[in-house]
Design brief:
By secondary structure, this protein is mostly helical. It is 67% helix and 0% strand. The N and C termini lie far apart (58 Å).
C-alpha cells in the first residue's frame, strides 16, 4: 500500500471518528467532501487494475487543485461563521414547527407532480414500445426511454417522494391523505426503478435521509453507514442488470485486476470509483483545446435545443482519452475541459464558498427550502468523484421546480 493511500485512509478514519462526538453534523460540507475525495484518492492509488498507471507530479498537482480549491472556499466561510449563532443539530430535531408549510397546498402539489410523472411515463412508454426491465434489448430501450421536454417529468419522482416525506412530518392526523401520497411515492419509485436508471433513485433516497436526519432523532451515524452500504450494493446490482449476462470473473479479467479472483465481486465497485480519476489524469495530459463552458453549462444548450448541433459542428468527443470501458472522469474534468487550470481552481473555490454559505444560512435560519436546495447540492458534492451533475438539465429542472413548489406551499410570515 502506498503512502498516499495510507494517508488518505487515515483521513477517512479520523473523519469517521469525529462523527461520534455529540451534536456533530455528519452532513457538514467540509466533512463530507473531504471523506469522499480522500477515499477516492486512497482507493485509486492502490492500483489494483492493469488499466491504472502512475501519475506524474504535474498531473497530481492539477488533479488535487480542484478539491483543494473547494476546501479553501469551505474553510473561508467556516472561519467567517466561527462565532455565529447557529442552531444545534438537537435543536433542529426538536423544532417541530420550524418548517412553516401549508398542508393542503403541499398535498395538492404532490398530486400534481405525480400526475405529470405518470403522463410523461405513459407517453415515453408508447414511444419506446416498452420499459427497460422487461425489454428484450434493455440497453437499447433504456437509451430510447426519453423524450425531449416530456422526459423531464420522469424526474418528478424525486420531488414526489421528498414532498411526501415532508407531508408525513408535518401532518400526523389525516391518515387518508398520507396513504394516498404513500401510494404516489411507491408507484413513482417502482415505475422509475424498472427503467434501470440510477441517479434519481439515489438522490431521492438521499434527500429523504437528509430531511429525516435534520428533522427527527431517528437518523444516526449507524443508520447513515448502513444506508451508504445499501446504496453501494444497489448501484452494483443495477449496473449488473444493465450489463446483461456478464459474469463477475469476465469483468474481473477484462479489468485486469491484480488481486485474487476470489474477490472478483469487488471488481465493478472498485473500478467505478477509481477509473474516474484515472480517466481524468490521462485527459489532463492530453487535452489540447478547451470548450469554454459547453459542458459546465450543459443545461443552457440542452434547453435551446442546440446541444447536439454544437457537438456535431465542432466535432466534440463526449468521452475522449478513455483508459478502459469506464467513461466518467469526476466533476473537475468538466471544469478543466472548459476552462483549463483556471476552471479547476476558481469554479470549485466559488462553489465551496457558495455551498458552505448555503449550509450556514440553513443552520442560522432553517427552512424546508434551504434543506431541499442544500440536499441537492450536497448530493452533487458526494458524487463529484464520478461526474458533474450540477449543469445537467434534469438537475436544474428539479432544483427550479423544488423552489417553485416550496414558494407555493410556504406560509408567509
Amino acid at each position: 500500500m502506498s503512502v498516499i493511500s495510507i494517508i488518505s485512509f487515515i483521513i477517512c478514519l479520523l473523519i469517521i471518528v469525529s462523527t461520534v462526538r455529540p451534536n456533530t453534523d455528519i452532513f457538514s460540507p467540509g466533512r463530507i467532501f473531504t471523506f469522499i475525495w480522500a477515499l477516492s484518492i486512497g482507493l485509486t492509488d492502490l492500483k489494483f487494475s492493469g488499466f491504472q498507471h502512475e501519475w506524474s507530479l504535474d498531473v497530481w498537482i492539477q488533479l488535487l487543485l480542484g478539491p483543494i480549491a473547494f476546501l479553501i472556499g469551505t474553510i473561508l466561510i467556516y472561519t467567517i461563521n466561527l462565532n455565529s449563532d447557529i442552531w444545534s443539530i438537537n435543536s433542529l430535531r426538536s423544532g417541530r414547527d420550524i418548517y412553516n408549510v401549508d398542508k393542503d397546498k403541499l398535498y395538492k402539489a404532490v398530486l400534481v407532480l405525480f400526475i405529470l410523472f405518470l403522463l410523461g411515463y405513459f407517453l415515453i412508454y408508447i414511444k419506446a414500445g416498452g420499459v427497460t426491465l422487461f425489454s428484450a434489448n434493455p440497453g437499447k430501450t433504456r437509451r430510447e426511454f426519453t423524450m425531449f421536454g416530456i422526459g423531464l417529468f420522469l424526474h418528478n419522482v424525486l420531488l414526489v417522494v421528498f414532498f411526501t416525506t415532508a407531508y408525513y412530518l408535518v401532518e400526523k392526523k389525516n391518515k387518508f391523505r398520507r396513504r394516498i401520497l404513500f401510494f404516489c411515492s411507491f408507484t413513482s419509485l417502482l415505475l422509475y426503478g424498472i427503467t434501470l436508471q440510477r441517479y434519481q433513485i439515489f438522490i431521492t433516497i438521499f434527500l429523504v435521509i437528509l430531511l429525516l436526519y435534520y428533522h427527527t432523532f431517528r437518523i444516526k451515524f449507524k443508520f447513515v453507514a448502513i444506508f451508504i452500504s445499501v446504496i453501494v450494493v444497489f448501484f452494483f446490482l443495477v449496473s449488473s442488470a444493465r450489463a446483461g449476462e456478464i459474469l463477475f470473473f469476465v469483468l474481473y479479467r477484462m479489468s485486469k485486476m491484480k488481486f485474487s479472483p476470489n474477490y472478483a465481486i469487488f471488481t465493478e465497485p472498485y473500478m467505478y470509483v477509481v477509473m474516474n480519476l484515472e480517466n481524468y489524469a490521462k485527459s489532463i495530459a492530453k487535452t489540447e483545446y478547451f470548450t469554454f463552458g459547453y459542458y459546465t453549462f450543459d443545461f443552457v444548450t440542452a434547453l435551446g435545443g442546440i446541444k447536439h448541433w454544437i457537438s456535431d459542428y465542432y466535432n466534440l468527443v463526449e468521452t475522449p482519452f478513455l483508459v478502459s470501458i469506464y467513461n466518467t472522469y469526476s466533476a473537475f474534468w468538466t471544469y478543466y475541459r472548459d476552462f483549463g487550470v483556471l476552471g479547476i481552481f476558481f469554479i470549485p473555490f466559488f462553489g465551496g464558498v457558495a455551498f458552505s454559505s448555503l449550509y450556514y444560512s440553513f443552520r442560522k435560519k432553517p427552512t424546508l427550502m434551504k434543506i431541499g436546495i442544500y440536499g441537492m447540492f450536497l448530493f452533487a458534492i458526494i458524487f463529484s468523484f464520478f461526474n458533474s451533475i450540477i449543469g445537467f438539465l434534469w438537475f436544474v429542472y428539479n432544483l427550479a421546480l423544488l423552489v417553485i413548489v416550496l414558494k407555493y406551499i410556504t406560509i408567509q410570515e
